[in-house]
């Protein structure tokens, strides 16, 4: 009986074992990963907010502390992270010919 | 005998033919290849990249001197298809990355293709010019105007040969029809219309009309908090112009018939494999998300790609796929780290060979996989510079999953997850394949004796 039980425990699927690992690292992770949070984050790709008013207010609120950069939790969509001018990448067109044609 | 003509996957020997792109490891973002597509004859091969550029290669005619290999692909045309934009109203950065290229069937001497980024689809005309008119009455050969008073006789200008020039020009721009990010475009078999799909909507366009499109699928919920799934890919049936399919992030495929109603929110068929509720985990839905859907050339089957497998569906059976092929099952015990490094969201594509007998898809470590449906064989090959000697036969690769690693095998932990093959294409008629690594395009051909 005891050995049967041990075998059953060892037969946790690799997927469930990975799930346990993830939950151990991120205890606040929600139970619905495919739900609206993840999808809405996907739909918001490309959104770049920069409002100097918000930026300065956020800076004043946090005072001397660093503004948080990346959301540590995967489920967070918007937080208090306001992109700084340094965060926004320089946009320019690729005027160089593709290296595939070289 | 013709090696591999109808033989199984292990009968066909694949040889390195060409590799395009820079050798250095320092890859600029713009050079990341984002789409690869042969045209309908296989003579042209188009690539799109993150920098918004399109490069088209043309196959050289077969040389009588070298019957053992089919023609090489050389650069035919290259142009900037899309440029980065910023939508100030929505504070939205619009990437110039080419998400998809689809060729139109050829109707005349010129070639036409559709290319799309996240928001705008463009119809490009690629045409050749090998003659130019000479002998104008009012212009000199260099273009300067002649004084009409000096013209004493008239002549008829004639066309004279010139060095071949290939020109790409945008003929139509289909803009402002997508709020969300376009993931697919598909040309209809009527050759007059095409569809474009974003995360929540699918639109139907007429090639000639750019200021209007019909919305044919809309899955946006009234309350966005209730959003549970998005559209991941869509494609028209290869011969039935009224039929198309779209796949979702929940692993379902819906087949729609445009004759049934103007708005195809109600599917005609729903393809979904039942899931064992006991096996459900945090990752189940994410890995079931379909990243690509492709009809077979025959139109009888369709293939879907999810994170770990390729499935073949018979259009007549909605309850489960008729075939399932494991691409890299060993990754199931790595899902935690693949979630943390975002690889679990990688969108792999898949493709059929011309006979619909073999399917191909990419994996990590620059590996790609082929599955022979008839012979039930599969092979793992690698696109790497080390195997880049002309006509050298590719050696099958193997990932060791157990504790003991055999010689020549590579262990799962040694796989390079930055080396991903997301885009592959198969020549419509011959055994020639185009495999894109991050920034290089490999062309492999079947070994002919």
From TrEMBL, chain A:
It is found in: Cytoplasm. It comes from the Eukaryota. Residues 1-22 have a biased composition (Basic and acidic residues). Pfam families: Endosulfine (PF04667). Its main location: cytoplasm. Residues 91-102 have a biased composition (Polar residues). Residues 1-38, 65-102 are annotated as: Disordered. PANTHER family: CAMP-REGULATED PHOSPHOPROTEIN 19 (PTHR10358:SF4), ENDOSULFINE (PTHR10358). Belongs to the endosulfine family. This is cAMP regulated phosphoprotein 19. It comes from Sphaeramia orbicularis.
TrEMBL record, chain B:
The gene is ppp2r2aa. One of its GO terms (cellular component) is protein phosphatase type 2A complex. It comes from the Eukaryota. InterPro entries: PP2A_PR55, PP2A_PR55_CS, WD40/YVTN_repeat-like_dom_sf, WD40_repeat_dom_sf, WD40_rpt. PP2A consists of a common heterodimeric core enzyme, composed of a 36 kDa catalytic subunit (subunit C) and a 65 kDa constant regulatory subunit (PR65 or subunit A), that associates with a variety of regulatory subunits. PANTHER family: PROTEIN PHOSPHATASE PP2A REGULATORY SUBUNIT B. It comes from Sphaeramia orbicularis. Belongs to the phosphatase 2A regulatory subunit B family. One of its GO terms (molecular function) is protein phosphatase regulator activity. This is Serine/threonine-protein phosphatase 2A 55 kDa regulatory subunit B. Keywords: Repeat, WD repeat. Transmembrane segments: none annotated.
């Amino acid at each position: 009986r005891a050995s049967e039980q041990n075998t059953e425990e060892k037969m946790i699927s690799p997927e469930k074992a990975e799930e346990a690992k993830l939950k151990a690292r991120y205890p606040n992770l929600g139970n619905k990963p495919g739900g609206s949070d993840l999808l809405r984050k996907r739909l918001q790709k490309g959104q770049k907010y920069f409002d100097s008013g918000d930026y300065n207010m956020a800076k004043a609120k946090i005072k001397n502390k660093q503004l948080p950069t990346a959301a540590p939790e995967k489920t967070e969509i918007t937080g208090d992270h306001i992109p700084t001018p340094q965060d926004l990448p320089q946009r320019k067109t690729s005027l160089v010919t593709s290296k595939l044609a070289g | 005998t013709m090696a591999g003509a109808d033989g199984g996957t292990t009968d066909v020997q694949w040889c390195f033919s060409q590799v395009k792109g820079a050798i250095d490891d320092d890859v600029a973002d713009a050079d990341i290849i984002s789409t690869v597509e042969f045209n309908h004859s296989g003579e042209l091969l188009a690539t799109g990249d993150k920098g918004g550029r399109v490069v088209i290669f043309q196959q050289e005619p077969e040389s009588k001197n070298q019957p053992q290999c089919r023609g090489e692909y050389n650069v035919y045309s290259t142009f900037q298809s899309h440029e980065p934009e910023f939508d100030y109203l929505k504070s939205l950065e619009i990437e110039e990355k080419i998400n998809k290229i689809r060729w139109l069937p050829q109707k005349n001497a010129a070639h036409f293709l559709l290319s799309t980024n996240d928001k705008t689809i463009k119809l490009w005309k690629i045409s050749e010019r090998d003659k130019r008119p000479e002998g104008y009455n009012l212009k000199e050969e260099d273009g300067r105007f002649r004084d009409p008073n000096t013209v004493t006789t008239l002549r008829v200008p004639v066309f004279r040969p010139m060095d071949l020039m290939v020109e790409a020009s945008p003929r139509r721009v289909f803009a402002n029809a997508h709020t969300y990010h376009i993931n697919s475009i598909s040309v209809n078999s009527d050759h007059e219309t095409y569809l474009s799909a974003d995360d929540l909507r699918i639109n139907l366009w007429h090639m000639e009309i750019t200021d209007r499109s019909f919305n044919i699928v809309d899955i946006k919920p009234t309350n966005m908090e209730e959003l549970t799934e998005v559209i991941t890919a869509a494609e028209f049936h290869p011969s039935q112009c009224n039929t198309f399919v779209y796949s979702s992030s929940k692993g379902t495929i819906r087949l729609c018939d445009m004759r049934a109603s103007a708005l195809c929110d109600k599917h005609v068929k729903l393809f979904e494999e039942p899931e064992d509720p006991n096996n459900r985990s945090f990752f189940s839905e994410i890995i079931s998300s379909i990243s690509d859907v492709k009809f077979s050339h025959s139109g009888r089957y369709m293939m879907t790609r999810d994170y770990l497998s390729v499935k073949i569906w018979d259009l007549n059976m909605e309850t489960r796929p008729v075939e399932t092929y494991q691409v890299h099952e060993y990754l199931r015990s790595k899902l935690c780290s693949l979630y943390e490094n975002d690889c679990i969201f990688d969108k792999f594509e898949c493709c059929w060979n011309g006979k619909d007998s073999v399917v191909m898809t990419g994996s990590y470590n620059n590996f790609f996989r082929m599955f022979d449906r008839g012979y039930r064989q599969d092979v793992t090959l690698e696109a790497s510079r080390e195997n880049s000697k002309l006509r050298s036969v590719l050696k099958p690769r193997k990932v060791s999953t157990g504790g003991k690693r055999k010689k020549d095998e590579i262990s799962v932990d040694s796989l390079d997850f930055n080396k991903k093959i997301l885009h592959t294409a198969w020549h419509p008629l011959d055994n020639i394949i185009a495999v894109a690594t991050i920034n290089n395009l490999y062309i492999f051909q079947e070994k002919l004796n």
